[in-house]
Amino acid sequence: TNQLRKEANLPLLPPNRNDTEVTVENRVAIAARSRLPMEIHDISESLSECQSTMVREALAKGSAALAVRLPGLSGKLGSKEFDSEGAQLPRLGRELSSAAKLAGVAGIFHSDELPAYGISEEDVTQIRGFLNITDEDAFAFCVAPNWQAKLAMESVIHRSRIAYHRIPKEVRNVVIRKGQPEDGTTSALRPLPGGARMYPETDIPLQEISIERWEDLRSKLPPTSEERMERLKALDISSNQAEAILNAEIDDTLFDGIEGNLRLPAKPWASALLELGTSNVQALSVAVHLRESGLITKDGIDALVRSSEDVKPENMIEWMTNEASLRGFVPADSSEVEKVVEDILGEKADMVNEKGMAAMGPLMGVVMARLGGSADGKIVSKALREKISEMMNQ
What we know:
Elements: H1 2-7, H2 22-35, E1 40-42, H3 53-60, E2 64-70, H4 92-101, E3 109-110, H5 121-131, E4 138-144, H6 146-162, E5 170-177, E6 180-191, H7 211-219, H8 225-233, H9 239-247, H10 251-259, H11 266-276, H12 281-292, H13 298-306, H14 316-326, H15 334-347, H16 349-355, H17 360-371, H18 377-393
Antiparallel strand pairs: 1-2, 2-4, 3-4, 5-6
Helix pairs in contact: 4-6, 8-9, 9-11, 10-11, 11-12, 12-13, 12-14, 15-17, 15-18, 17-18
């Protein structure tokens, strides 16, 4: 550990575990994560022609060969060192292997023990080239079903980072070879149990899960936040809307409206969900549909949705259309808009002559108020601009 820390210009461990400072260890942990990033690489092609029967057969059955870089660890994985009494100290390679085995793999290959086991010097060179590592760097890989190999390699990285710290307090297993302990060598077995029970995990029977069952379960997992965001980015909505939709966890509701029978446009549907909520999605979706079809006004959406709690879904479109007509939430037609615009411009001719197009802003509010919110702002704006332009050109 201190050798690794020295090479990384990090504070050395004090002789006594009790003198360890949390702030120093936090700094070391950050450095270890930086030196050993969680990057896993598929090297199956690099091993397709290797001489190892085990590797070839596993790859032929659909397994993957996944590898990780171990920067600065060349020569530190497989070296045997002994304490003052001649007992063999834990080897880092064995620590990594025992961590990987917790994922259920038979073991790992690491660069300090290669070439061997049917992995040739040419294979090693090819792997080093693929991983783009130097002579000071090591690597480790395992061959297993993709999901299992990934878990194993993640464990290898986590355990490699721990090499920059003291060996954690944990339950360790004495390594047995031919019925005898090998110089007291141990390997990680499991984390220390909690204080409530000494071995709570022994109460839970192991359950074998086939690869097919595991893959079936994985295929049914919900998408990650990153995957959900990528799906939202493909829509015609702003980045702020996408982030708000994701944070509110209503992206499924958004897509239900877009892909459902009403085929709602993404932007107005997203705006309606964010502004008015999801307490009555059925009514809200119908209101947005009618609004985009030009049958109700924007101001009518909230009022109609609030009044629709007792309306059956199959009657919602008919009820909302009739209710909009009764309550004055039907948009004004273009001829009515033009008439109101002409009336207002006749009353405010002096303002138009004085300000020209700058009168658009104040007059827009006057026209909308006269129409009682029953007109589309875009239609009013277009009509107002055209009429002012005609007046200025006369």
